[in-house]
Amino acid sequence: MGTTQLESVPEPKYWHLKTVLTEALDSEFSVGEILPNERDLAARFGVARATLRQALEQLELEGRLQRRRGVGTTVAPPRMGVSVGSEQHAWPGGPDDAWHAVDCRLEVPPAALAEPLVTGSDEAVHVVRRSRVSRGQPVASELLYIPAASVPDLSGIDAPSGAARARAVLRELQRLELERQENAVELGSAGADEARELDRLPGAPVLVVTTRYIARGRTAALSAATYRADTCRLTFGDSGGVEIHHGPERQAS
Fold first, then answer.
1. Pairing outcome for strands 125-134 and 137-146
2. Distance CA 96, CA 140 (A)
3. What does the alpha-carbon distance between residue 174 and residue 246 come to, in Å, rounded to a whole number?
4. Cα–Cα distance, 249 to 229 (Å, whole number)
5. End-to-end CA distance of the chain
6. d(CA 102, CA 164)
């Protein structure tokens, strides 16, 4: 890497530095490569470390860089799309589902979910925890809330918890005829548990996709899936549901 000094420009210095850094990422680094430390980068570009941090933070928000605990700042792979559509009807856990079951427990859902689930405030439901990995990296985690009335035939299943129990609950859920599903998306920040599961720092930006599965005129299941905002972008259309796919785009839609 040679030395490049920044000339006076009308735009903020950190923004111009971001452009210069982007060109360097495209020409000098490969996906997954660790960048030099902040001191060396600031010296190379002749800027203060505060200016450098602003540029790096912007590139992280755009999905070009990833900051990983114990590793440093690395070049990110192209963003993956979270496609949110309205036409697909598929229960979670089907043959084309890329999520991996992790655990299942009986728990009382948060108060905000009791109403859409049509359960009492102290009524326990099956809570299935699932994860999604892409290119060896965690990109999403999910909590799937399923009322006992949606899966009444679980008495013969021995596993009280764990991945086996989660898969059994999802198999029973698929016995219902799915009428429709409704999706909602919002921007949030990772809590402590989500940050640990997604290998992010607490407070990192995330996309929260809530999916309500309707059968027999009621909510049969409710999914709250949390996606890493630095590796995912939103796409909208009538064909979809919620899925991750690789694409060449790097900028958020």
1. antiparallel
2. 17
3. 28
4. 14
5. 32
6. 9
Cα 81 to Cα 3: distance, rounded to the nearest angstrom: 36
The chain-wide mean pLDDT, for the chain, equals 81
Which residue pairs from 164-169 have beta carbons closer than 8 angstroms and sit at least 24 positions apart in sequence?
165/103, 165/104, 166/101, 166/102, 166/103, 166/104, 166/128, 166/129, 166/130, 167/93, 167/101, 168/104, 169/104, 169/126, 169/128
Sign of CA dihedral 184, 190, 194, 200: positive
Q: What is the pLDDT of residue 7?
A: 55
CA-atom Rg of the chain in angstroms: 22
- The pLDDT score that the predictor gives to residue 241 is 42
Contact 252/80 with Cβ under 8 angstroms?
no
Q: How far apart are CA 240 and CA 66, in angstroms?
A: 27
- Token pair of 39, please? 């001191």
- Give the residues across from 130 on adjacent strands: 101, 142
Q: What is the DSSP pairing of strand 80-84 with strand 232-236?
A: parallel
Q: For the segment 8-64, what is each residue's pLDDT rounded down to a tens digit?
A: 545 688 888 988 998 888 889 888 889 999 999 999 999 999 999 999 988 887 778
User: What distance in Å separates the CA atoms of residue 74 and residue 178, rounded to the nearest whole number?
Assistant: 42
Question: Rounded to an integer, what distance in angstroms lies between the CA atom of residue 44 and that of residue 42?
Answer: 5
